[in-house]
Batch of 4 targets.
Target 1
Amino acid sequence: MIVVATNLTYFLAWGFLDPRNNYVGRRPPLSEDQIVQLLQPRNLSDTVSLLERWWSWFSGIIFRWDWGVSPVGQSVNDQVAYRMWVSAELVLGATILATVLGIALGVYTASRQYKLADRIGQATSIITMNINIVVAALGIVLLAIGFNNMVGTTVFFVTGSASSDVTGFFPIIIDALQHLILPTVALVIIGYAGTHFLQRSLLLDNINADYVRTARAKGLTKAQAIRKHALRTSLIPVATQVAFTIPTVFMGAILTESIFGWNGMGRYFLETIAKNDIHGTVAIAAFGAVLTAIGALLADIAVVVLDPRVRVS
Amino acid sequence: MPRNSIQPAVGPETTAIRLPRKRMSKWELYSRRFRRNRPAVAGLVIFAVLVLFAVVAPLLARYDHIELDFLNLGEPPSGEHWLGTTSAGNDTFAQVAIGLQRSLMIAVAVSVGTTVISAVVGTAAAYFSGMFERLTLLLIHFLMVVPTFLLLAMFSNDSGGDWRTISLIMILIGWFFPARVIWTMALSLREREYVHAARYMGVPGMKIVLRHMLPNIGSLLVINFTLGVVAAVMIETGLSFLGFGVKIPDVSLGSLIGSGANTITSAPWLFYFPAAALTLLTVSMALVADGLRDAFDPTSAAGGRA
């Protein structure tokens, strides 16, 4: 599936992107020969037939794990290898925080169903879930700028993933945190509500089950019974859902990354399309497909870990 | 209230007779259950106001959304320009109204399209089973692996910003996920007696799908439609914000926020008003969807008795 989808994207990308457009309007104008000379060694020239281009691209991946080069000659492998970690820094932290927050809120509100805390939690979550990520991120930028002005120094950086002039172990960590905190908050605000609703409704299904009553009857407090018995059962679908959202979050960070100026995969995606970088676009598509597969695998692992009825041979 | 409206106890020991009671129709029940959910009603009202604003405001506005006022460049809100102007002299009030209109049109068109296609394909796949079902599922699973946002960006970047083309592409890319959900729902429907009965009476297959199976997942479809509006607004905003969607001179809420983001400290009103319209739109639709779900769900216990 991944291989087929990637190859299909390759042909689609050729249908919509033309590297030749990068040289339109260049001063002094490049001649036809010059353009072909620039593009041909990068396997991006349309003077070679599409099938031939495809084969040299595909064989490059199979035999040398070489995903090709961009129209200006940067290696796609290097770009993805670097940007992947920039994105991961942002996305993994945000996903973990959003999941923990969502589960905690879900448990808290489910054990107080229809009380004031539950109502307030529900209302807040339905609003935050439906705020657009763009609005949330820009709102946070506005707040952070206001806060910086109030304090008088730059506490939160609103662009970039790291400053270049920082040295030393602890300064680098503090600097990274200063950059990381705003986009993470934006992603968490948008992302936690889905987990909250799912966890709440699943826990409500389980909270009155017989085995929870048994646990209460043998002397556990209500909190213990929920945490050790009801929560464990209702965590399984939540874990599955979170695992499956990892690729979506990775790609969904496109907007966050472009607002906060992070050079991650999302930014790369925009650049490749704007610069007619066919190999880069296809590499991103393949990256997304691989993440989907990893998500499915993680979901299976989570079920095995959480559900004692599932045995692996 | 009529005098004898309270039903006395009926049983073998009493002589009381059962008072005739007016049966509540299905829609009356649904609307009553919906109205009792106050946030949902508020959502509906907000949504109605937004639609009204999108339709009426362009008629009231003193300026056209493309018209440039060179005497007021980048002015904050004033009596002349109610919501301020952009640095090029566009009236923000007119732009927000037109942008809201455009976003609503795209969202409704996309949501109608995806709901119809996913409902027909999903139920048809479940009903006809066999080869057709397998092929449809193969196609759906394949489309799930394909990076759809990437395709969306490439297609709509190529389309030159026409909102009709963008809606069409969003429909083509958005139908398969709901279709998969509807297929699972319809699997149990195809084993029902009335479907068998219709089949043995000789009703043609497509007619069974449309007349007998679809109405039975109607409530799911209505909820899907409202949630689809939210999703479509979100995606369209994202695309337009990045510059892949609606293009100048046409505006949508996403492109307005995108241009407002560049001047967020110097001219924040360019960001505030479209962002507020967008948030109200998505939150109100989500509240309506939530209320509909409670109204249609026979087991729902949320918010008291019907």
Target 2
Amino acid sequence: MALYVLRRLLVAIPTIMLLVVASFLMMHVAPGGPFTSERPLPPEVLANIEAQYGLDQPLWKQLWDYFYNIVVHFDFGPSFVQKDRSVNEIIANGFPISLTYGALSFLAATLVGVSLGITAAIRHNTWIDYVAVSLGIAAQALPNFIMGPILILTFTLWLGLLPGGGWNGGQWEYLIMPVIALSTSYMGSIARITRSSMLEVMNSNFIRTARAKGLPDRAIIWRHAMKPTLLPVISYLGPVFVYVLTGSVFVDLYFSTGGLGQSYVSSALTRDYAVLLGITILYGALTVIVNLLTDLAYAWFDPKIRY
Amino acid sequence: MTILSVNDLKVDFDTPDGTVNAVKGVSFDIRAGECLGIVGESGSGKSQSFMAAMGLMPPNGRATGGVELQGEQILNLPVSKLNRIRGADVGMIFQDPLTALTPHLKIGEQMAEVLKVHKGLSGREARAQCLDWLDRVRIPEARRRLKQYPHELSGGMRQRVMIAQAMLCEPKLLIADEPTTALDVTVQAEVLDLMDRLKDELGTAIALITHDMGVVARMCDRIKVMRLGEFVEEGEAKAIFDAPSHAYTQRLLEAMPRIDKGEANRTETGEEILTVDDMKVHFPIRVEGGLFGRTVPLKAVNGVSFGLRAGETLGIVGESGCGKSTLARAVLRLVEPTDGTVSWFGKPLNQLDKKALKNERKDLQIVFQDPLASLDPRMTIADSIAEPLKTFRPELSKSERQAEVVAMMERVGLEREKYNRYPHELSGGQNQRVGIARAMINRPKLIICDEAVSALDVSIQAQIVTLLKELQAEFGMSMLFISHDLSVVREISNRIMVLYLGRVVEMGDADTICTAPVHPYTRSLISAVPIPDPVAERERARIRLPGELPSPLDPRAALRFLPSKLAAGEEDYVPRLTEVAPGHMVAEHDALEDIMAREKKAAA
Amino acid sequence: MFARSEKTAELAADITDFTAVRGRSLFRDAMGRFVRNKAAMASVFVLGLIVLFVVFGPLIAVWDNEEIDWANMGDILRNGAPSIASGHFFGLDELGRDLYSRTIQATRTSLLVGLIGAAMALLVGTAWGVIAGFYGGRLDTAMMRVVDILLAIPLTLILILILVVAGRNFVTLFIALGAVSWLTMARIVRGQTLTLKTREFIEAARAGGVSEGQIIFRHILPNLIGVVIVYASLLVPEMILAESFISFLGLGISEPMTSLGRLIAEGAGTMAHGTIWQLAFPLFFYVTIIITMFFIGDGLRDALDPKDR
């Protein structure tokens, strides 16, 4: 097990390195930069600024320095646009926010989705099943950037129950709408995956054996059917976690929560490559780790998989 | 005393194409301590009757009639009431022991559940009972098994676990639905013996659902022959086997090949067209160890040599994992052999380049086990049959090709109207005829039949074997006939080669191998094959080798029949083949008594 | 002189030949199942209506999608509401443009994006997956490693990155969408190819001397169609979603062209003023398309899924 984790981490390192290099090069071949504004700066000023950020160095040297600073000092360098702020600071500011509502959305989507799917499967072909399936499909058609306006319209403008945006240290009134907006569509897909998986499992031979043993339905569902049902769900949860984190791009824009998504979009629009690069690498590394965790969870659910 | 009494049971299924009457009113009784055989081919409704009786039908099924268990009506009872009966008064075991056990629960957990539900036992007491039953079904190292998952056990052991689990509450009735169909023949013999013993010791009634007349002959006191949802014949086992009255039963019994009898097959004396010398096929298998794992070679075929004459049929038999299918594919170079030579009419087949090999393929054909899987589901059967023609005789015009295909279809017994049919529209037997037509269309000189009749019902199996023999008489091709079913192999082969873990243990005339085997492995194999004759079957002496078929990855397994060399530390020793009689080769082995004695000592 | 061409002879042979029963191909079976699926058929019908609306809607439009209604743009909330009389069936947008024409144009864009994006994923993903799966070995390892690495990068970020770096236009958008969506397709196709490759009919073809290339085209690809169609149909709504997401951020298609995502973004931005129709109409079309595509995808899967056979 430990060996497997180690092996996976060893494979992850070149993946992340490749990601760093690819993103770095992509941003440097792109036309335009953070300092090419509408009013062209005098050449000597530009040269001065570029020297300050090390942009006058040859590309490989820049890449090497960038790499070196990340590996040795865990330093992603200064922001090109926001004066006096380092990329590390910007991430340290926004990431906890994104992570908080991201993790909550993830939990909400998983718990509600799985329960809905299982309920539908157990009551297969009854009105409960039909309602659950319709709910699932409707939810799936409502991604975060659609749910956002609908929620604000309903709860802030019409009912006046919840504040329309802001973070305020993550008090629950400020969390509710971002979490619902972010989780709805994933909740729908998780519910649908769970339902069809459970229906398939309930048709399998070992469930027939369990029935033949005279076990009550409760035991059959919880002890025998649950784990195999959740296997395909788990392999979908990894990507969902990543989607939910990157969904921050929208939530921040809409609810002014101030997470990393906001920094990402604004840095993309102002060509603040340092910030853009930092966040891309952070999310890439997170994806790799989440995928690893998913695989480990998979092994826990399926004794046939041994690492 | 009657345990189960079924009265005019009907089972219907609602399908999109209308209602299907799977069981059309059957009645029977099962008495304590007897074994009732329900025999029938696929689709006869034999399993469905029992599933319906126990309330285990799929949701689209309906059952009417009466089922009484010890005088109490149980048909269509609510699940909560049925649950008190299932597992307590009636135990069940199923065909495929791998998928029938919950994969993520340990053996001990799955078994203890039954005791908890029906007897309220748990903890140490339940454990003790589970252990006791695992011992009674003779599972080695029972204590350790309790903590293992189903996939860590062999097929035979899993079926024993199923039996132990079904017997935990000492039910009055054990329903066994094709309990040995997925198992190797020696394992089958042991599982059947076990069931027989339980019946005698505990007086448990057994309902044995099977398609195999040999199994019935060994096990059953009374028989019901089922066909298309109805019983066509019923009575005492001996009476039915001696004088079957219904035409269907007669056909079924006639279709059963017997290992103890057979026409004397002539020996072919033609020239040797195929010579395989020291063939080895090793697959790298990933195992644990080191940071990135390591690979060990799985020696699927490990030094096999044989020759095949023109017009001759060589049967290749062995249990699962013995490398017989790999051998066939390596001969045809569908997998690349690791070592050794294949000489085909003097040409080294394994050294030809792609183009030369393609030319030879015209004369080398193969028929596979699963008729449906061996045909492209998106092609009409005519297109499938015509494919080799397109490759090797591109000069044919469309109509000429069509004529060839139709002629071949009719030769293998397919009506020309089926020309545009797709495989999923045909039965298994018809699809296998398509597979044979495709193999025969270029009049090849060698056909390899890889378990070609194993997936078919007995009566269809007999037809296909007859067809193959006719084709051989007409076209004179040679055959390699691979099967795990020794009776079929005996019927069709001139000579038989027995494989054990990638090596030849014995080779000789079909009759000699089946009537006077020499090697201990062949002897145990032959003695385990059931004979469809209750009298002969119950009188036979069985040679039981202790233990299960070992894993091919275990380096010591190869010398299972030469324990003296193992004891001497010569683990790499390769047993030599010696000719004990003209054409009868036997691998070096210790005497059977020595092997048994040593195993016993090791077990103790 | 009447040259007897071989072709005519063959045709004649075909006609005068025995009457063989026409078999039902798997595809026809699947079509039958699909037609019986009520939800899927209803969705096809609704989607068909939307396509008809997009094609013929402009014929009854009074205003062009770029035209600004100067008379009414002063007070959108009061004068810009949907009305038959003013010719603005769906009302006006914030700049005084006709929302009816803009919605039609946006729906067209979104449908196109969905189809083209899915088609790109289909082509690239299928080719990649088949080659990796069929030839196996080191090539497979290398090709799948590439997919794994790309999959490890959050796709929305890549999408944004490509659009920022390469500039915003239609072609870039399609390339960007295609670039991020073929990965899963490649994985699925590879998995299917691996199982197909071990099926006996492939071995039979090989034993019959059929060349590797022919095996791919004659046996592998036709048997992949089911999976590919099902997955592509599920990709269509995903592509529409992704494009909407991008447009929502203002990175998608540029004015005066628009897409549903962009209209929704604009509508959402102004709903606080009470011009709810600016959100409602695009949202209605958007949600309808997505939901019908889901049902159609589900229907296709039920119809083509080999598990049912």
Target 3
Amino acid sequence: MNEDSVLVRAILQGDEEAMEQLVYRYYDEIFYYINQIGAPYEEAKDITQEVFISMLKALPKYKEQGHFKAWIYRIAYNKSMNHFRQSKYVTTLSEAHEEVAEDDIGGTVENQSLVKELLDSLPQKQSSALILKYFHGFTASEIAKVMGVSLPTAKSRIFQGLKKLKKRLKEDEN
Amino acid sequence: MKSKHDDEIKALLMYKQIPPVDEEEKRELVHKLKAYMPVSQAAPSKIMQQLIQKAFTSIYRDHKIELFVLLTFLLLAYSFMPASDVWIVIMSTSPIPIFLAGWHLLNGQSNDMVELELTYKYTFHQVLFSKIIAIVAWNLGIYSVALLYLLGIKNMDISLYFFHIVILGLTPIITFSLALLLLSIKYRRETSWTVVILTWIFFVLLSLQTPLGTFLIEVNVLFYVLLNGSLVLFLLHRLQHLWRTERLSDGIL
């Protein structure tokens, strides 16, 4: 039994300390993910809060299958997409990172801006799949669960995303 | 074959830069989430058992005099009526416990009461589920006792005729159980149950005064078996759905 499922069981029994541990375990990466897929810094904080509230409300219905991380990311993905649809405004990745980029120092700026630029050039679904894979360490089947698509679709999004990035790098070289 | 860009892209994408997260935000969120902590509950089967037991004893506590009077009336009627006429008593009286308990059930289910019940430890749906099960169980219990008495006092054989009578008497019990369940979910108005009772009285009088009664008893028993089977399946389906209906639906997934 992994640690997440121990915490989930404790929370279902009303253990507030377990809830605190779960929040501290996932807050940063969920916030980072929401920020990465296009929510500006302040909005990402609000959406992260909504994600944890929804997670806690839905926890009695959660069926333990050892995929808690994928489950909470899926809530984050759905919440973010709903937020984007409602506000009818999708922030580009560059805008979302603007505030963070201001604090960058030295050589990191070059790498970061290149990453942002590359991901910005992709359709949102492909960039989301790449973010989940390379920034958050998900496997293709977990990405499929998070995004609510089939495994071949998730693989195709990663493949297409990488292909476009490669093409882009070649063009830049030429 | 891997190109030189593969590694370059992967190295770039794996580059991480965590935006600073305010620790105060996390503390505030933890504080806020305490209001959403799940209430610790036993396993659903245990809750179901507890609730049904409570509903069962509560019906006995609230209606023991009425149920005793009804049972006495049935036993007396079966003792003095000729065996050939007893079917009309069975058919017309079989759903009376449901009418009785249904009256009190719907009476206590104003919308205000439902709102109040939603704040309880158990959901409104779970409570309603257990009450319906207990009412049906009480009704079937009284019906069985009366039939066993009938078998003993009239020295009736367990024949096709007796089977026909039993099935005929079950039809209103199942029909009104279903009606009570659907009315409790949809309308929750005491008057709706009055209409149901009046309709039944009218139907019984019509059966007594017109050839409708004879017609009903002459209909093939297979028809009633199929009808009751379908109604039981529908009732079980609705009860299952009722139990599964959750109090909160955030629709996030």
Target 4
Amino acid sequence: MKSKVLAVLVSVSLLATIFVGCGKTETAVTTETDVETTEEVTEEVTETTELENVTLVMWGAEEDQVMLGEMIESFKTFYADKAVFDISLGVQSESTAKDTVLTDVEAAADVFAFADDQLNELVNAGALQPVSINTDAIIEANGGVEAGSVKAAMKEDTLYAYPMTADNGYFMFYDKSVFTEEDVKSLDKMMEVASAAGKKITVDYSSGWYLYSFFQGAGLTLALNEDGVTNFCTWNETDGKYTGAQVAEAMLTIANNPGFVSLGDAEFVTGVTDGTIAAGINGTWNAATAEAAWGENYAAVKLPTYTVAGEQVQMSSFAGYKLVGVNAYSEYAGWAMLLAEWITNYENQVKRFEQRGLGPSNIEAAASDEVQSSPAIAALAAQSVYATVQRVGNNFWDPASAYGAIVAAGNPDGTDLQELVDLLVDGITAPVQ
Amino acid sequence: MKNFLTQIVKFIKEIVLAIKEGDLFVKFSLLIMGMGYFGRKQMIKGIIMTLFQILVCFFAWIVAIPYLIKIPTLGTVQREMIFNLDTMKNEVNEFDHSFKILLFGIISIFILFVSLLIYFVNIIKVRSLQLRKEAGKHINNFSEDIKEYFDKKFHITLLFFPVAGIVVFTVIPLLVVIMVAFTNYDQTNMPPTNLFTWVGVQNFQQLFTSSITITFGYSFKKVLLWTLVWAFFATFTNYIAGILLAIFINDKKTKLKKMWRTFFVVTIAVPQFVTLLLVRNFFADTGIVNTICQSLGVTEFLQNIGLVKQSLSYIPFLTDPAWAKVMVILINMWIGIPYLMLIATGVLLNIPTDIMESARIDGANGFQVFVKITMPYMLFVTGPYLVTSFVANINNFNVIYLLTQDVFFTMDQYLANSNAKEIDLLVTWLYRLTQEQYNFKMASVIGIVVFVLCATFTLLAFNTMIKGNREEDFQ
């Protein structure tokens, strides 16, 4: 009897060591392979484990819900042999994703879409998972590290998000029945033509997002400091090719022109619909409105030049991208990354363009003839030469919008323009209080 | 205050007496809370108290102590993570979550404090049991004790749930928010990824500081002044206009009283935020009201008399600081008067007719009756309402925010540098500081200021204006 017990014990312990040994070698093997190709690793890992239950939450724009639902289904089918998925989809506008995510990172979705200007703060708050699966392939597919969409998704050489669209910037919309292609090259000419036709052109002076194009165009700088929170700004420059006060002067002249009015986004739509606005700087989100109002005459073009100190200066712009991020607090970070990669891959970017008209960031998808023939996307591509990726600290917006409101109102108090831009820069570069 | 102190002294004396003169069971219950009950054969109560003691000890060991020792620093270990390709998951270190430390720290302190109180009360209770036993009085068994809570001590049962509710849902969150005002919780120190820590009264100093880059002091003065002006006008315009409206409708000569009343009540039926958002569109620079004013020549007229600047082609209803301030007060009247009319109608019907009649006989005209009888009576009855609505208007978020958000842009660069606008109340400023700037520490400081403001007004008003014993004053 005793010997039997002993035999069992010995065999059990032997078996145990075998298993333990196996386990060790196995992990060693996987760590070796993951250096080479990451995709193989994920397959191998999922093979060794039982089918895992993966629960994910994804947030996307309201208009995209149906399409995202289809993408999730195809994702599930593709990985059906790797895990059992329970993926739910919620509505969250890309423009306010940051606010919702930062309210409670731990309760936010695993995968969410957002506009690239939010990346900096999301990274600062530690809300974004660095892309750690197929990173190089993703960068490659979107045009390499120098491509705008990749730069927009990177911070300090780390890729933090998956580029989804490359159409979130702004450009000039115009009505072909009012302007010729020659007219839209200069803002002065446009205002002249517009006021002659009893119409107006518009730029939203109350938003720092658009104001940037004047200052940046004139070679003045706005950038993020190394701390990632405060701004560096030379918009009150007193020497150099153009001074800050000269740009302010130029903006003021534009504001006082009878062919010009500063309108917000909603008023832009009203103006285009009721015919008082014949051209304006805005983005793809209003392309459908303009197309509906102007029909055949709808056209889009890169931003025009404007006059600073008697010279023509090309307006710059913020390049806008939409990105998909993975929550750094996601329980299934790996699968969330695969899902984010899936909804931004070539096929799904093509699908996104076909169904929703959104311009792809994937260079292969963007190269197709259909994409190139969309006026808005073509205009953005032409503007992209003058555009820069948006990296701005939170303190930029309110001071910029106050400055814009003053200039739009024609500087009612007659404040010295240098004083105006000095105060503007003080506000923009203020420390976080 | 004095009363409160003597109560505490009395309580301490009782405890000392109980420990000194208690028998063995009482003294033992210092160690094991149930002992005093076991000694008087109150087994169930004894078990409950002992279990309670064990639970508190467990809580202290597992929750309270780990959090409390971190309270002085609010955490030191920042979150770090490495993605593990094998498990497809993140490997995260044991990091500190400053906000959780603050929250659970305060909850722990609270629970431990209450437990300590119960511990001392327990000793006094046990001692009184001993005295009852010695005097040969009846000692309740458990079911008799329970019954007492529905009989002699019913007030305690009734009060338990409201008090517990207030503590859990109001007092503790309030304490946490107050504590945030003494930390550097803002966008650069946001948990869970980053830590925040104590900074003392620095934020309060900042609220009263004005420099080139830090303009909180400047903004605070402006916003506070407008908040008070707004609260005053919003309250009294509604109040007086509502009463007048009710008087007009109730007048004997008014026909179709019910119809008029219904017309005004209909505005209540539409949710306020719907009305406000619609009205915001009506009064936009390119909105319908402006279009009408322009075609009627009102815009031109206003330009001629200087109320609208020549450079504008529209009336800046909600975009110019002065116009916007007047407009929000007017629009607030429009949505607020019907409520006041309903309240006033009820009160007016209650004014004793004999007073009115004798006034008439004495030869008082309508105006004199209104000033000498109606208004004093109204003020007397609706005084508390007036105070609460003044305080509510200090915090009237809806009207200001919904009417001016995304429409009103400040042209005051100093205000803009601390994220405020001319039209902001303290609450809307606070809201935008948290929602747009994640500046929780300053928002919390402003929150405290609002609280102090409201508390002061309420106390002053209730102490001077409305005292329960002034029923005859209105005559």
